[in-house]
Amino acid sequence: MDTTRKIQMNVNGTSYSDEIDVRTTLVDFLRVNCGLTGTHVGCEHGVCGACTILWNGNAVRSCIMLAVQADGSEISTVEGLAPGSELHPIQQAFMEEHGLQCGFCTPGFMMSIYEMISRNPDPSDEEIKDVLGGQICRCTGYQTIFKAVRSAIDKMAAANKSAAQG
Ligand code: FES
Ligand code: FES
After folding, report:
1. Which atom of ligand 1 is nearest to the CA of 46?
2. N or C terminus of the chain with fewer C-beta within 10 Å?
3. Distance (Å, whole) CA 117 – CA 139
4. What is the mean pLDDT of the chain?
C-alpha cells in the first residue's frame, strides 16, 4: 500500500511542497522537509509546548499534528516573526528581560505569546499566566518570561500607535 502523499503549505509566506509518508508529523515536515529548525522538539507528546507554531493563526503543538492535516494551510513559525534584520518586539523583550537561558523552550513560548497578543493586545495578568502555564521552561522560573511578555505588549502597542499616527 502506498503511504506517501504530496502536500503543500505556506510557511511564513513561502510555499513548500513535498511527497511525504502520511505518518510524518508537522514538526518533522517543518524541520526536515522545509529546513526550518527554529521549531524545537521536546516531549513529542503535546505536553511541553516547545514545538508550538501557528496553524491558520491558531497556536498548535506541531508534534501531535500530522503534516497531511496541514495540507493547504498557512503556517507561521518562529523564523517568520522577524523577516528582516530587526528583532520582533517579542524577541527584543525576551532579550532585554532575560526571558531565556538555554533557549530550548523559547520558540514555543514566543509563538504562543504572539498568538495571545494577536487575539487580545491587552491581556490581563491571569490571561498571560494561563498561556505561559501551557509551556514548560526548565530554566527561567517564569518571572522573567512574564516580564518579557508585559514589555512586548507595551512595545507592540507603542509601535501600533506610531503606525496609526503615520
Ligand atoms: S514537543 Fe510538542 S509539545 Fe513537547
Ligand atoms: S530557557 Fe531553558 S528551558 Fe526555557
Report:
1. 3
2. N
3. 24
4. 97
Mean pLDDT value across residues 129-154: 97
Q: Is 103 in the pocket of ligand 1 (CB under 6 A)?
A: no
CATH code for the domain in which residue 158 is found: 1.10.150.120
Query: From the CA of 25, how far away is ligand 2's center (Å)?
Result: 23
CA 77/CA 116 separation, integer angstroms: 15
Q: Residue 119 is part of which domain span?
A: 89-164
User: How many angstroms is it from 12 CA to the middle of ligand 2?
Assistant: 24
For residue 49, the domain's CATH number is 3.10.20.30
Place of cell 506541531: 62
If one counts the domains in the chain, the total is 2
Q: Taking the C-alpha atoms of 151, 145, 92 and 31 in order, what is their torsion angle to the nearest 10 degrees? A: -140
Whether pTM > 0.90 for this model: the answer is yes
**161 C-alpha to ligand 1 centroid (Å):** 36
Q: What 3-state class would DSSP assign to 22?
A: coil
Ligand with minimal distance to 136 CA: 2
Q: What are phi and psi of 101, to 5 degrees?
A: -120, -80
